[in-house]
Every structure is written in C-alpha cells, then in structure tokens.
Amino acid sequence: MKQYKVGILGATGSVGREMMKILLERNFPISELHLFASERSAGKVVAWNGGPIQIELAAEDAFEGLDIVLGAAESEVARQFAPAIVKAGAVFIDNSSAFRLREDVPLVVPEVNPEDVKQHRGIIANPNCSTIIAVTAINALRQLSPIVSMTASTYQAVSGAGAAGPMELSEQVNAVMKGQPVQPRTFPHQIAFNLIPQIGDEQESGYTSEEMKLQYEGRKILHLPQMKVSCTCVRVPVVRSHSLSLSLKFQRRISLYEARRAIQFAPGCRLVDDLAEHQYPMPLYSSDQDLVFVGRIRPDLTDENGLCLWCCGDQVRKGAATNAIQIAELLIEKE
C-alpha cells in the first residue's frame, strides 16, 4: 500500500491532538508525520506511534514534500499558510472557517457528499462541527424527500470553545459548591449550572455567526441552495459532544417507519429511539466515538410534511478531526 507524508498544522491544540490519535486508530497509511505549531511549541517533543516526534515551526517553506496537510489551526493561520501548502503540492484539508464558503473550495462530509472531493484545487474545507452532526443525521431523510426548511437548536459542549472551556466549567462548579465567587474568562457569563444562548458574534438580524453557519454550510453540502434554516446556538455545561434539536419540513410527508428505517441504515448514524425504554441520544454516550446518534423521531405537529428529531455527536471527533481524516481517506481512494 502506498504511504503518505502527512502534516498537521496546529498540532498542539485539542483538534490537532485528536487527529494524531485518529490517524493511528484508522490505520491511515503514513510514511512520515510532521507536526507544525507556533514558536511557543516548536522544538517540543511528543510521543506518537511508539516514538518521539519533534514539533516543527509552521513556516512558508515547511510543507515541501508533504502529500496532505490537516489543518487544526485558527482561520488566520489557515489563510496565512494555505498558499504555501498548495504551492508545495500538498492537499490542505482545513478545519477552520477560512475557506468553507469559497466557491472553488469543496465543503465535505464524507457520508453526505463524498463526490465533491473531486472538485478540489488544493484545498478542501471541513464544515462547522454542528453542521457536520446535523447533515450526517438528516442526509438519509433528505434522500427520501428534499428539505424545504429546518429549525434547529444546538446545545454545544464547553470543549467546543477549546481546552479552556472544560477547565472553566470545572473551576466554576468547584467555586459555586464552595460558595466562592465565579470569574468568567472563556465565556461571557458563568457557565456552571447555566445556559448561554449566544455562540459567536452578531451577524445579521439578531442571529450570530455560529447560527448562520448551519444555513450557509448546510446548503452547500446538501446541494439545496434554497433551503431555509433558523438556528439558535446555546452553550451548555456539558464537557463533550454537541446535541441538536431539529425540526424539518419536506416536500412530501415522510412516515415514521420510513424515517426510522432510513436513519437505521444511514452511514455514520446510530438509531437510538425508544421512548418507552428511555433510549435516546445523549452526549454522555455519543462522546469519544464517531457515530451521530439520532432519536426522538416524531411528527412535527405544526406541519404535516414535517419531522422532529434529536441528535448528538462528538464535536472534537466527527465534528472535526475524524471528518478531516475521512476526507483524506477519500483522497487516497481516488488514486
């Protein structure tokens, strides 16, 4: 089997570290792994696959000879180094939001639109974590009937804000239990024992940037340019795995039997839907694995062509690192 030289840009962050783990789990064919980070981390040594790897400084000339670079850095870093990566002849699979809506960059969820990988010109974008979870959950239903509109509420874990999120939640829980004052730093308000109905900055008509991603990115991935999405994003005091409540309107009525059967056999999904037995998706059980759990499937009582469902997925794995590596697997399948 052909082996590939792979780099990870932003290797010391939570997504970069998860990528290192998943590359081994999925037995990706690697001859060399290069880890890139800022000056603060360059020179440090980390363990991977039974041996040491020294972290390299991310620089314009650092990507020569690589086949694939996985992006786990912020948007400005991705924009800075993308031209150099493409010039070096590598394919850049980027997890940031920098290139997601560019017309010349495919936005890919492998279970949903794998064929779009063929359209790349050196860059492939990984969607937003909540978008990945949502479209994986609803893709099989979309194949039964086109989606006209979707109303979504996301309940996003604190680890979605990076490593500082879980630390802040833990610190605040301890402080509250001891009757001590709470000092928010990562989040605008106390997150312990609380919900914060804002993720991202205001973008348009009172919606935040995070809320608009589900419409813009969902349209592109599903090839439904007219699909309307109304979304509310909420930060919740859960450490890992995002949850979503989705209400979907279709062009025709879809029966519950059709919907459940479609989800049961959908790639990347696990049907967990037995209300009588208290079986439904929960972040506690959807964490640290790559399937999107889907359940609470029921009619929308406001529209005869509507369905409601609840889904959960690990935003660090399927919502970021695993999806990127699945894209890389599609790339090497085409060779």
Give the key terms:
Dihydrodipicolinate Reductase, domain 2; 8 helices; Rossmann fold; single chain; six-stranded parallel β-sheet; 2 domains; alpha/beta
- Strand order, sheet with most strands: 5-2-1-6-7-8
- Looking at the overall shape, the CATH architecture of the largest domain is 2-Layer Sandwich
Separate helix tally: 8
The quaternary organization reads as: single chain
Helix content: 25-40%
- N-to-C terminal Cα separation, in Å? 11 Å
| CATH class wording of the largest domain | Alpha Beta
As residue ranges, the low-confidence spans are none
Order of helices and strands: EHEEEEEHEEHEHEEHEEHEHEEH
CATH superfamily of the largest domain: Dihydrodipicolinate Reductase, domain 2
Shape: globular
User: What is the number of independent domains?
Assistant: 2
Mean pLDDT: 96
Assign the CATH topology of the largest domain: Dihydrodipicolinate Reductase, domain 2
- Total strands: the figure is 16
Q: Provide the structure class.
A: alpha/beta
Major sheet summary line: 6 strands, parallel
Q: Tell me the Rg in angstroms.
A: 20 Å
Percent of residues in β-strands = 25-35%
Describe it.
The longest helix is centred in the C-terminal third of the chain and has 17 residues, at 317-333. This protein has helices spanning 14-25, 75-87, 129-142, 164-177, 209-222, 256-264, 283-286, 317-333, and strands at residues 4-9, 30-37, 45-48, 51-54, 56-57, 68-71, 91-94, 123-125, 147-156, 202-204, 207-208, 228-235, 242-250, 269-271, 292-299, 306-313. β6, α2 (75-87) and β7 form a beta-alpha-beta unit. With 335 residues, it is an alpha/beta fold. The protein folds into 2 domains: 4-127 and 320-333, NAD(P)-binding Rossmann-like Domain (Rossmann fold, 3-Layer(aba) Sandwich), CATH 3.40.50; 131-315, Dihydrodipicolinate Reductase, domain 2 (2-Layer Sandwich), CATH 3.30.360.10. The protein is globular and about 60 Å long. It has a 6-stranded parallel beta sheet with strand order 5-2-1-6-7-8, with helices on both faces. Strands 12-9-13-16-15-14 form a 6-stranded mixed beta sheet. The protein contains 8 helices and 16 strands. The model has no long low-confidence stretch (mean pLDDT 96). α3 (129-142) runs parallel beside α5.
